[in-house]
Amino acid sequence: MLFIDGEFVPASSGRSGSVTEKATGRELGRYAQGDAADVAAAVAAARRAQPAWAALAAPERAEFLHRLADELHRRFNGLVEQSMRETGGIRSKAEDEVGTSIRQLQIFGRTGDRERW
Could you tell me if 68 and 106 lie in one domain? Predict the structure, then answer.
């Protein structure tokens, strides 16, 4: 599924691909294979959403980033496990990748707490 305009939707072509566990070859799930029409829909949705986002004060935008970081932190172990299964990577690499995402959101959130974006 693609996330466009606040909801999950299938690719406009109806096409999808398989996500397989590297160690076993077992299918873990499927993903939508978006095309140019899906990109156009996502860009149009982003353009519609941008004025409301820009109208928020920096601390309000920062709060969204903090909440996302908190949610990733709550799901840390599951995200690490999923990454390892999908990529065949080792735990320390997956932990670093998920942890880096959380840290970056926290850094940008702290910046937004202090400054006008």
Answer: yes
pTM: 0.81
Contact 5, 45 (CB under 8 A): yes
> How many domains does the chain contain in total?
2
pLDDT in tens, 39-81: 999 999 999 999 999 999 999 999 999 999 999 999 999 999 9
Residues spanned by the domain of 45: 1-55
Give CA–CA dist 45/67, Å, rounded: 22
* DSSP-derived secondary structure for 44-70: HHHHHHHHHHHHS-HHHHHHHHHHHHH
